[in-house]
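Contributing: when you submit paired examples, paste them exactly as shown. First protein:
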Amino acid sequence: MFKTVLMAAAMVGALSLGACGTTPTDRGISGAGIGAVGGAVVAGATGGSVGTGAVIGAVVGGVVGATTTKDDLNIGDPPWKKSCRERQRRGEHISCRHKPRR
């Protein structure tokens, strides 16, 4: 019973965090990463093969991420798009000058 509840909770969590980003590629990549971690955790907790769980999770997360739109499921931009210059291009008024190293 505990394993079933744990697996259901992990699947709901993985699907709710399916992907972040605005393009299908961004969403597919981030969804695959999140799914791989979730699949490995679930497999490890239930006594299964961690590698197999990671592969299955990556495939499911990647498909969910690539097939949903940002309007279906949106948890923000992926980390690789949060650079200072990218944030300026998106309209944020921030300074990208770094303090010189001593």
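Second protein:
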Amino acid sequence: MFRENKKMLDRRRIPRVQVFFLLENMTFSGSEGGMECQGVVKNITPDGLLLESNVKIKKNDILQLSFTLPNTRKALNLEGKVRWAEVKKAYTTAGIEFMDLTSEQREVIMEYLMTLGFSL
């Protein structure tokens, strides 16, 4: 397990930035069918985020994510693919990779991270 985690860390191009904010809306079309649900973002980079949700999410599910970055007025509507998921008793933790992010959306995320004191 440690080796797998180390490999995952080594592949990251940009360090994860710890945050905590709610998704305003999350829709996904997984093996359980399409549904709207909520979640909490635990970390974020311009490439993806760590999500916790009370819904069972599985690897390769495609999510439509809507959120406003804290202390900004910048709303984002993004599509993401579940790269890994860990189902626990009451919630699922999942690594989400953003898909087809525009340069403007990437810039919004990078600017937000810089306001938190991180240089990219």
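If you have annotations for the second protein, write them as plain sentences, like these:
The two ends are 29 Å apart (CA to CA).
The chain is about 20% helix and 50% strand.
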